[in-house]
Design brief:
5 helices, mainly alpha
């Protein structure tokens, strides 16, 4: 089985999701990341990336997308934003962090 390329993720970490969301949402994300670093986890960006992947994994799997198609999917993300999608991903990120902390940090 061939291992997938996660080239699309490198841009997320280099640009802190700047191209994937609207300015309003990205400023909220950045403020949350900076606050979370001191209060919750230093890995907030990684948890957010995982939540973002989890949001789109059904589409990726159903369409059997290759690396190029996944790059396009995330590259065109800002233009496809639906109302509430950012809030949903952010909420799932916080839930994921809470679950991991409860399970592994006692």
């Amino acid at each position: 089985m061939q291992q997938p390329d996660f080239l699309f993720c490198s841009r997320w970490f280099l640009l802190a999701f700047k191209r994937e969301f609207s300015y309003k949402d990205i400023f909220r994300l950045w403020e949350t990341m900076w606050a979370a670093e001191g209060l919750v986890t230093k890995c907030f960006m990684e948890f957010f990336a995982l939540s973002l992947l989890r949001q789109y994994i059904p589409t990726i799997m159903h369409k059997k997308m290759d690396t190029f198609e996944i790059l396009n999917l995330f590259g065109e993300m800002e233009s496809r934003q639906h109302n509430g999608e950012f809030e949903l991903i952010l909420s799932r990120t916080l839930s994921l962090i809470t679950n991991v902390r409860q399970k592994f940090i006692k």
